């Protein structure tokens, strides 16, 4: 394929793959797509190592990085330490988690670990400085308008800046702020998402920004036919995340992979229980415990909820992997409704090739309907 | 277009239009699509008149009817009168509505009207008997597995039976029950809907039923490019409803039309506040009053909630049309997220022609992406 976005990004197929796993990023890029490393959870040193490894693997082929710098969060501008932020987590939340664990036959931690407050300080800027020393071809912000330093770094270094949006109003705002690529992500997406479905959001965003910049479709896309449907609607390509979680290369917890393979599209929920903002993930006893409409507990604002949740969920994953039934009932991870179509573990490279074939078949199918 | 479904249903373009308005049904059929009259709210005599009128207009061109025969509802099998069913509406619900109206400067009814329990008895069967005396080419059930008498009537009269589904498990069940056409409707749809988005549901349903019967895509589709996207994914065509509500022909309350033209895709909500089952509609003070997660009131089961709600909502519509601010804040109607793309009142015929043009342009766009 030689569409404008393929030319611009130097790729064969406009399939963008977001992953926290460097192996997935390299495999997708080497297969003709565009890998994007989720870098938010790394220290600057570790990110540098990851990117150097990718550089060795892809030998000049294009890839990008994605960090999360939310526009609003608890403690913004106060320059707090992780410790000081953790002190803002009310004691009854720690008690609630201890009780939830006890109900699932899991011992509470003696001293509950509260996690680190990633990106709440200048961490995002430091990660970006590391990234631009590598030959990255895209920098993305996964939540809200990118910070000014990202827009500036993109312009200074000639690297396009992408941003994820879940509503047309946000897309218009992002374009005004100088973003070069819009990822319009529907409510069926894994992770942070809005309320509008991909099928409605894509034409709405494209109309709203009047072709100012290309739009990638995201949310629920795990096959080439869905990607083709979005390109028919005017998208320049697809941005994907969930589909890589069940690849050979992914570092997804083994028990969670099993859950994903068994899940239907109705086994996910848009919940604030992991980060404090609505994010789609597997339904589990964990997400049930944070349901707003039943006996569930209210969640804390970003980043306090993830500081509270992440260390516990990692402990739960380890227990679930070792066969602990209570932990298996609690275990969850970010994934979109497309999980219903993810039924087999395969190499990331094969996923790309199947996307291409399925895309071409879909284009044939639509073409035949107007030719006949 | 001469796709298999066009041949089978005798149409030029596989756009199915559900409407309560006979004028829309006739206009769509006459423009080369397939009109489907929502017949559930008619008496047998009135339905007969409506269908005779359509027969005169379409002169043998194909159209169908849609009724709602839920598989489960309050009082099923008890052979209750509307009066007896109405007696099951608790008094505190009447008080709640009176208070909600009072908060919006609307006088309560002296004797609250409770509405009729449409289709709770043998009304569905009677409507169907009337319908098959007309040259209908499709009978559809909008909620759950069609009753046995519908399947039998379809076979006896050689009329295909369609059913709407919101999950792949339901599609498999419907096919087993002998349904000839599946309408797979995503969560972005107006009216009753499930939780899975159209973009995920379509490939999931098609895979699950293994091409046993054709699948129409529904949910959020108000443009030809979205329809084309769904055909690229394997759908045989589109089933639409919301887009007809803002046509010249529609009988939508004028104030509600204004609300729809101004609405974005984020101005709808999946609420049980109108029928007792989750149905997407415009957000309003009415839907806020029935939110499960805040100070809202729990809703009654089908058909009690609609018996309670419909007469009041019709009064509200009339007041809203005459400029009453409280009623305007309460007014709502079923509509999908596609409402964000519905920005102009136009003739139904023009909507069909715009769909065709937009569909062809989308097919060109996708075709170009693989040719280049």
UniProtKB/TrEMBL annotation, chains A, B:
Q: What keywords sit in the KW lines?
A: Flavoprotein, FMN, Monooxygenase, Oxidoreductase
Q: Which InterPro entries does the UniProt entry name for this protein?
A: Aldolase_TIM, NMO
Q: Is Iron-sulfur among this UniProt entry's keywords? A: no
Q: What are the recorded GO MF terms, alphabetically?
A: monooxygenase activity
Recorded hits in Pfam families, A to Z, give: NMO (PF03060)
Reply yes or no: does the keyword DNA repair apply. Answer: no
Residues crossing the lipid bilayer are none
- EC number(s): the record gives 1.13.12.-
Q: PANTHER family per the record?
A: 2-NITROPROPANE DIOXYGENASE, MONOOXYGENASE RV1533-RELATED
Protein name in UniProt: Nitronate monooxygenase
């Amino acid at each position: 394929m030689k569409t404008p976005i393929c030319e611009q990004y130097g790729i064969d197929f406009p399939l963008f793959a977001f992953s926290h796993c460097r192996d997935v990023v390299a495999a997708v890029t080497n297969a003709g797509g565009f890998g994007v490393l989720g870098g938010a959870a790394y220290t600057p040193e570790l990110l540098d190592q990851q990117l150097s490894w990718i550089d060795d693997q892809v030998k000049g082929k294009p890839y990008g990085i994605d960090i999360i710098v939310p526009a609003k969060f608890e403690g913004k501008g106060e320059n707090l330490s992780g410790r000081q932020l953790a002190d803002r987590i009310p004691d009854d939340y720690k008690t609630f988690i201890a009780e939830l664990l006890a109900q699932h036959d899991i011992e509470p931690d003696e001293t509950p670990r509260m996690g680190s407050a990633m990106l709440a300080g200048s961490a995002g800027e430091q990660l970006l400085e590391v990234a631009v020393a590598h030959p990255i071809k895209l920098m993305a912000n996964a939540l809200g308008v990118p910070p000014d330093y990202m827009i500036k770094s993109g312009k200074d270094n000639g690297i396009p800046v992408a941003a994820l949006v879940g509503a047309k109003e946000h897309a218009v705002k992002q374009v005004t702020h100088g973003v070069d690529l819009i990822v319009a992500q529907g409510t069926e997406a894994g992770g942070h998402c809005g309320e509008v479905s991909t099928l409605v959001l894509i034409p709405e965003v494209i109309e709203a920004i009047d072709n100012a910049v290309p739009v990638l479709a995201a949310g629920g896309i795990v096959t080439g036919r869905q990607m083709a449907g979005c390109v028919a609607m005017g998208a320049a390509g697809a941005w994907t995340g969930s589909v890589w979680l069940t690849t050979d290369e992914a570092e997804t917890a083994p028990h969670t992979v099993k859950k994903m393979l068994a899940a239907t599209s109705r086994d996910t929920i848009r919940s604030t229980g992991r980060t404090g903002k609505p994010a789609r993930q597997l339904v589990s006893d964990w997400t049930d415990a944070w349901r707003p409409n039943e006996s569930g507990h209210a969640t804390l604002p970003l980043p306090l909820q993830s500081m509270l949740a992440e260390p516990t969920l990692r402990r739960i994953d380890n227990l679930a992997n070792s066969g602990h039934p209570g932990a298996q009932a609690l275990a969850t991870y970010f994934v979109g409704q497309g999980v219903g179509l993810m039924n087999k573990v395969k190499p990331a490279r094969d996923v790309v090739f199947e996307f291409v074939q399925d895309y071409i078949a879909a284009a044939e199918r639509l073409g035949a309907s107007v030719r006949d």
